[in-house]
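S.,

As promised, the adenosine-5'-triphosphate run. Input:
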Amino acid sequence: MLKLDLHRKSFAGHTVLEDIHLDLRHGDRIAVFGPSGVGKTTLLRIIAGLDKRFVGTREAPDEIALMFQNPTLLDWRTAFENLRIFHPNAEGRAIQEALAQVGLHDKADHFPRQLSVGQQRRLALARCFLTPTPLVLLDEPFASLDQSLRQEMLALTRAFLDKTGSTLVLVTHAQDEAEALAAESYELRDVLQPDTELAAL
Ligand SMILES: Nc1ncnc2c1ncn2[C@@H]1O[C@H](COP(=O)(O)OP(=O)(O)OP(=O)(O)O)[C@@H](O)[C@H]1O
Ligand SMILES: [Mg+2]
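Predicted complex:
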């Protein structure tokens, strides 16, 4: 369902990623580790189809859910509208249910600035999972959250994934997140090192 043969990705002549091959089936879950600046977000953007400037080939479903470290909500839209705008075919009831699932049932009319950081993150998670998509890409969505909120978000994400059976690519620095989501761990190594492929941890 996701096949990526990435021979090379460069920015202005500087190679960031080289020889990365992914072949994931429905329901597979992987976690990608690696030091800051190694190219994890770049890889995720390529998988998402947001960056097409690379040498190689990509086969992926059209519908992909994405969540970044920054919740990327629309400030001038309410919580309800933030979900609706990304899921125009979802019924109002389904949107309300999605809000309730992440504990925001009474926040439908609130704007992002009226929500706490944790609530904004939960709204972004609801947006990610409102309509089941075959492929879910998460870029450090649990970073810099306090421990209890992190556990709560992980549990919600696990429940969503178990329900939808979506394929997952998670970028993270935390091994316990990979374990909580039952994702197989891979390390993205620096292109300057001899073994540049994704290596199983
Ligand atoms: N649009 C861009 N133009 C030029 N260079 C870029 C661009 N985006 C990323 N890079 C470079 O590519 C490299 C990889 O960046 P990337 O954001 O993928 O790292 P990362 O592994 O996600 O790091 P972090 O863990 O800090 O999020 C970095 O050296 C970065 O400076
Ligand atoms: Mg990154």
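Residues 36 and 106 are 38 Å apart (CA to CA). The pocket of adenosine-5'-triphosphate (ligand 1) is lined by residues 11, 16, 34, 36-42 (CB under 6 Å).

- D.
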